[in-house]
């Protein structure tokens, strides 16, 4: 999962239109991937509320390149998270 820096986007303007926010975020994610010629990599899931980011399958080389980009806060590996226990 690629997480954009907190101040990267001002999505407040989309507060009434979640679909527009997701569309904008998708364009930005694709632009980031294109910058690093991540051929065939497409944003799979987009996150616009608690944080701004997207999931994508990347090679180790592309992950390392994206991690150095000024727009990127972090890149987290895909994993299962347990929110609580019974």
UniProtKB/TrEMBL annotation:
InterPro entries: S8pro/Inhibitor_I9, S8pro/Inhibitor_I9_sf
Sequence ranges assigned to domain Inhibitor I9 in this UniProt record: 37-81
Stored Pfam families: Inhibitor_I9
Transmembrane segments: none
Gene3D superfamilies the UniProt entry points to: Peptidase S8 propeptide/proteinase inhibitor I9
Protein name per the record: Inhibitor I9 domain-containing protein
Source organism (scientific name): Arthrospiribacter ruber
């Amino acid at each position: 999962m690629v997480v954009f820096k907190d101040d990267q986007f001002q999505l407040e303007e989309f507060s009434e239109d979640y679909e527009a926010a997701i569309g904008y975020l998708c364009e930005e994610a694709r632009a980031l991937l294109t910058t690093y010629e991540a051929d065939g990599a497409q944003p799979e899931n987009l996150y616009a509320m608690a944080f701004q980011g997207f999931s994508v399958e990347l090679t180790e080389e592309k992950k390392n390149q994206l991690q150095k980009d000024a727009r990127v806060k972090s890149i987290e590996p895909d994993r299962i998270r347990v929110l609580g226990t019974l």
